[in-house]
Amino acid sequence: MKPPVITAVTAWVPEAIPLSRWTAIESALRATGHPGWDAWMRSWHPDYGHWLEAGAGEETGGSRPVHSGVPTPDVTCMVPVETGTDLSGLAVKVANALCAARPPDARPVDVIVFCHSSLDEHVSTTVAGRLCAEVGTPCFPFSVSQQHGVSPFTALRLAADLLVAEPHIHTILIVAAEKWCPPFSRMCGTCMVHGDAAGAMLVERTDPGTGGVHLLDVAARHVPVDMVCGDAGVADARTFPLLSMIDSLLARHGLHDENVNDVVGHPGIPSLTAAVSDLLGRPDTGVQHEDCVHLGAAESIVRLAQILNRAACGRRHRALLWGYGTGGFIGTALLGMHGAPSLPISKTRSSPSHDP
Amino acid sequence: MIPDLGITHVAFHLPQCVDDVRSWGQRTGQSATTVVQLERAGMRYYRKANGQTAIGLAASAVQRLLLTSGIARREVDCIVYVHTLQGSVAPPPHSLPGLLCDRFGFTNAEAFSFAQQHCASALAALRVIRAMFIARPYMKRVLLVGADVMPLASERLMRAEGILGDGAFAAFIERGAAVNRLLAIGMHASGLGWRGVLANDESRLAAQNFFTARSLIRQTVQQARFTLDDIQRILPHHLDLPAWHRLLDSLQVPHDRLFAENFARVGHVTVSDAFINLAQCEGLVTGRPLLLFARGIGGFSAAALLVR
């Protein structure tokens, strides 16, 4: 089977504000209460109280993880914060932008995959359902979550599986969005702060010879995190499995490090970035926002949109995406640009203060 | 299609604390009419977790599954965690399926959560799992786990259709299955009613749900080249027993084909109903098909046809 093709990508990153300003906004929001979530916050305490009280994102069961060389977010750190809409609104914004760029006779969307780690305004809502209702035709909508930054890698893998397994499926819409607001904290341990963002991409079964971003391979897995270490001399538990995953992925396609033109990873763990750069003999080319800011499930799609804006789509070009998720997740994807995409790749859209 | 893909082992866990709808109605200030309507819908008792969270219930179901199946932990290729309520997760950005991997030593497993089709999520996940098996020849075994806990007593009410109970299930889906082979999966999703209880669209969608269920059951059975007469049992979601009887009348299926014992015993255990019923339904005849059905608020329905 021909590899699936990513025919369109779009992303939205809201205006970045100083962390100190967010802290003031958050205090005001916390004071108003959150009827949709307060009962759950209380109910989580027996099992997760140590996390809820010590700060979200810790992985060491009490002791705080300190990654070698990680800049701790300070009050001047600039964080993208969405103030105009909720999580499902962010998801709809990018989905509609992407669908509006399709020709009127485009095939209907068969599958919608919504990726996220932050939660919507009320426990009973469904963002995947809203996306399905917005697209307007019955399809197969569902969410992939609880993998933090790795959900889009799993979504791409499942999209590829569905295209193999169900010949009538042609068009899959993957949407990722994150919006952090009380009672949930955007602070992730001591090393990272979550920013709000959204991204969408269309994965399609296309005719042979169609140009676009070919999904050559993708993988995601879980790594035990009970061995995550804070010493500067000890690698993050995800490092070796991630390097091994990248090695295997390149080997499966008979490629070497020099065959990859762009390497785009996640921020927040400099030791991981350095290890991948060492392996592939080139620096990470995707960094756009502050290294202590992570856009969660939206991170990889935002970065993909950024490199596609820069890449010359008329020539052969390969990109390796890698990412991680709190809780011990890693993912990689190998993409090949083959001529011009069948649909225009949307630019990364962001508020003026966050333009790349 | 993979001819021998099936649900080889199923286990479930229900919390020990049993409550009845009348006591619940008094405690939460429900009207006598509401309680009578719930009893007409088939509800009598339900289980409540009393402080346990979803991971505790899910872990108990997984533990039971591992004990009864004898499957080694390294032989699990993937964990798919399903749930109805957004809150049945680990506090974000943590991962409940990741924590299950750590707790049980599923060192070779992928792990992710499949959700947002509400109570239809478990059966809808079978479609993705089937695709994984078709596209990945190396994949031998997936662990499907579902759990939900409702910490707000007053929000257990599912209109007059049922009462939401706490519980969990775990099931192995494998190649080379000798029982419960998966013949067909059908689903319908409109996303209408995506705002859940904030919009309360379910009354408006009731008629649509009925017609959707009827056509979905017919299509799923036809997909596998069976007739409705061939179906030995229907394992339902535990909502609105009289509506199930009307649906069966409409399909000309005898009422005794419906496995209805658990409506009164456990209430509506969200994503777990069909799998609890699969574990408890006795007398299933080898070689004959059975149908699992689930509906999630928000406009989601799913059916799976198995052969014993």
Automatic annotation (TrEMBL), chain A:
<dbReference type="InterPro" id="IPR016039">
    <property type="entry name" value="Thiolase-like"/>
</dbReference>
<protein>
    <submittedName>
        <fullName>3-oxoacyl-[acyl-carrier-protein] synthase III</fullName>
    </submittedName>
</protein>
<dbReference type="GO" id="GO:0006633">
    <property type="term" value="P:fatty acid biosynthetic process"/>
</dbReference>
<dbReference type="InterPro" id="IPR013751">
    <property type="entry name" value="ACP_syn_III_N"/>
</dbReference>
<dbReference type="GO" id="GO:0004315">
    <property type="term" value="F:3-oxoacyl-[acyl-carrier-protein] synthase activity"/>
</dbReference>
<dbReference type="Pfam" id="PF08545">
    <property type="entry name" value="ACP_syn_III"/>
</dbReference>
<dbReference type="GO" id="GO:0044550">
    <property type="term" value="P:secondary metabolite biosynthetic process"/>
</dbReference>
<feature type="domain" description="Beta-ketoacyl-[acyl-carrier-protein] synthase III N-terminal">
    <location>
        <begin position="153"/>
        <end position="211"/>
    </location>
</feature>
From TrEMBL, chain B:
<feature type="domain" description="Beta-ketoacyl-[acyl-carrier-protein] synthase III N-terminal">
    <location>
        <begin position="116"/>
        <end position="191"/>
    </location>
</feature>
<dbReference type="Pfam" id="PF08545">
    <property type="entry name" value="ACP_syn_III"/>
</dbReference>
<dbReference type="Pfam" id="PF08541">
    <property type="entry name" value="ACP_syn_III_C"/>
</dbReference>
<keyword id="KW-0012">Acyltransferase</keyword>
<dbReference type="GO" id="GO:0004315">
    <property type="term" value="F:3-oxoacyl-[acyl-carrier-protein] synthase activity"/>
</dbReference>
<dbReference type="InterPro" id="IPR016039">
    <property type="entry name" value="Thiolase-like"/>
</dbReference>
<dbReference type="InterPro" id="IPR013747">
    <property type="entry name" value="ACP_syn_III_C"/>
</dbReference>
<dbReference type="GO" id="GO:0006633">
    <property type="term" value="P:fatty acid biosynthetic process"/>
</dbReference>
<feature type="domain" description="Beta-ketoacyl-[acyl-carrier-protein] synthase III C-terminal">
    <location>
        <begin position="222"/>
        <end position="306"/>
    </location>
</feature>
<dbReference type="GO" id="GO:0044550">
    <property type="term" value="P:secondary metabolite biosynthetic process"/>
</dbReference>
<dbReference type="InterPro" id="IPR013751">
    <property type="entry name" value="ACP_syn_III_N"/>
</dbReference>
<keyword id="KW-0808">Transferase</keyword>
<protein>
    <submittedName>
        <fullName>3-oxoacyl-[acyl-carrier-protein] synthase III</fullName>
    </submittedName>
</protein>
